[in-house]
Amino acid sequence: MNWQKILVSIAGVVLVAAAWRAYGWPGVAVVSGGVVMWVLLHFTRLMHVLKQASERPVGHVGSAVMLNAKLQAGMPLLKVLALTRALGELRSAPDAQPEVFRWGDTSGSHVTCEFVNGRLTTWQMVRPDPETPTPSTVPAAD
Q1: Which residue in 46, 117, 123, 128 could disulfide with 108, CB within 3.0 to 4.6 Å?
Q2: CATH 3.30.465.10 fits 58-126, yes or no
């Protein structure tokens, strides 16, 4: 169970009750307006991040090394999506915990992230071996 969602809801009800007790209906209107504004700000941020992610290829990031440097344990998935500006390639079964996503760059490096309940728990960066030629670096045979 996610206690944070319950506590935020209870805090909203307590604020509205306190506003009613102190100022009556004008207080309820001000506090309700503030709560609605807070919800709209979060919704707008969510839509902006998802719009940016929809305009890029799935699982692609500009630099996997930079992504690896910016990741921190406990980051929400929305914040990771804002960093990458792309949806991750799903590597686990749908609706299974933990969720595993992968982002890669053009050099062949990729970062695999594991999320439990929407929070980043572990991540691993893999860089290609520079001695093994990739198809783009193999010289063409005459």
Answers
A1: 128
A2: no
